[in-house]
Design brief:
Residues 108-209 form a coiled coil. Belongs to the mis12 family. There is one protein chain. The protein is mostly helical and 209 residues long. It has three domains: 7-105, no CATH class; 140-171; 174-202. It has six helices and no strands. Helix 2 (17-49) runs antiparallel to helix 3. The longest helix is centred in the C-terminal third of the chain and has 58 residues, at 112-169. It is elongated and about 145 Å long.
């Protein structure tokens, strides 16, 4: 059987010509085997009718197998010729024939160098797409983080608004001014506490002496 891949024919027919020939060969071979079994069955029936026949069924089977081998050898030779004719004249696309889906290549021919350049450009575009996708994913993550921070800030602002309302209810005036005074007082208290701690340390050192 032919070893030529016949890729263009496979593209046109949708199957490899070699596969087609193999199926035809198997179909003919199966038919030959079935025909020999039928012939053998007829011979066995005829022997039962003939009186005094000394030919046994095993002998008939041996003769059938020999005849089948003879037929198969001749069939293989004939099929090889038939396969050569079919592959060359029936299942073969001439070199000057162009399939409709490949006519665009005739209109826009390109060399191997141009094809390689297109491949390189395609690879670069794919890398850029992957990089842009990664940047987009990072931006989405940052946006989600900003949304979470915004939600926390809104909670803090609501808390400040609540404190300001409480200050107004108790006559404390502007919450921002009160908060500023509270911060200054806290700082003064921290300074006083620090001064007291330093004096306490000095007194302990004096007592130890």
């Amino acid at each position: 059987m032919s070893v030529d891949p016949m890729a263009y024919e496979t593209q046109f027919f949708g199957f490899t010509p070699q596969t087609c020939m193999l199926r035809i060969y198997i179909a003919f071979q199966d038919y030959l085997f079935e025909m020999m079994l039928v012939v053998e069955g007829v011979m066995l029936k005829k022997l039962d009718v003939i009186p005094g026949c000394k030919i046994s069924p095993s002998q008939i089977r041996k003769c059938t197998e020999k005849f089948l081998l003879f037929m198969k050898e001749h069939f293989d030779k004939l099929f090889a010729k038939m396969e050569e004719v079919l592959l060359q004249l029936v299942l073969n696309i001439p070199k000057n024939v162009l399939l409709p889906e490949d006519r665009v290549q005739e209109q826009y021919p390109y060399s191997k160098e141009e094809f390689q350049a297109l491949q390189d450009e395609l690879q670069q575009l794919q890398q850029q797409c992957r990089a842009e996708a990664a940047v987009e994913q990072a931006l989405r993550a940052e946006l989600e983080e900003q949304k979470a921070v915004k939600a926390e800030l809104e909670k803090i602002l609501q808390c400040f608004d609540g404190l300001e309302n409480i200050c107004r209810e108790h006559g404390a005036g502007n919450f921002k001014e009160s908060f500023a005074l509270l911060t200054q007082s806290s700082k003064k208290l921290q300074d006083v506490l620090k001064e007291v701690e330093e004096k306490s340390k000095k007194m302990k050192q004096h007592d130890q002496l």
